[in-house]
Design a protein that fits this description.
Distance between the termini: 97 Å
Radius of gyration: 34 Å
Helix content: 55-70%
Largest sheet: 5 strands, mixed
Shape: elongated
Number of strands: 7
Length: 325
Amino acid sequence: MFDRRGILALCLLLGLICILELREIVRMRKQLSGWLADLKAVRRAPERKLFVKGSGILAEINYELNGILEEGRERMFRLQKAKEANRQLLTDLSHDVRTPLASLVGYLEALETRAAGRQEQEEKEGKSGEALAGNGGQLAEYLGVAYQKALDLRALIDMLFQWFKLEAEEQTFDLKYWDLNELTREVMIEQLPALEKEQISLTAFIPEEEWMVLLDKVAYARILQNIFQNAKKHGKCSELTIQVRRTDTWAEVTVSNDGAEIPKEELPFIFERMYKCGGARSGSGSGLGLSIVKELTKAMSGEITAKSRPGQTSFCLRFPCPDPL
């Protein structure tokens, strides 16, 4: 038979242990709740530190977390300084390169025009083909190549500068309601000389009525220019078609070309920065043109999609146009 006193003492001891354990659990729970609140505060204000009273494993964890937070702050500070330095460097380089390049393009254009005029004059005066080939004809050819290379370099610098401004979130947009159909016609007319020079035909299906859409005029022009450039340079197309349509809530601008097909496996990645297609569409380029198109379209609350099959590649732009039909 058990001793009643022993059993009672054992029960009291077990009860005391349970009470002490419950107190410790409550204390730890309270401490953890305070720690969670501190972590949330640190998330809102990263410069803060974590504080845990007393000692034990929570205090040790707190110490290690504070060390990790401090390292993270130092890295973020260094990254921010590097970002600012890179931004300033790119800005300075852009201005330093753009100014002399603009002068170079101007001089080359003037020389090319003069050389072409000289060749035409010599032809009128009846000079021999051999003399033309050795003088004005050859000069015009060389100047034409140099002029085109300068234009390509200027386009690349403009593209890099545009992407840099978007990446740094320094691009400003002047959003106003524009007649999408008229704006599309303006951009199309501006591109006609370059397209004719490349012997690319352009067909347009643009309604006559006004469809007012909230756009940045310069950004919209850049979008179409980049799509045209992509079709010329990488698609190597001979025909371009632009069509403007409308649904109940969207205005759609579709630009199609008859150039090289974009492989199905590459189509999901063409709007990513620095991505370059392989195969028939490979070639020189920055890999930024279509990524800029996507970023500018998003900035104007629009969407862009692409589809491609043999003989036709299409880019479809969609912008909100909620006015009733």
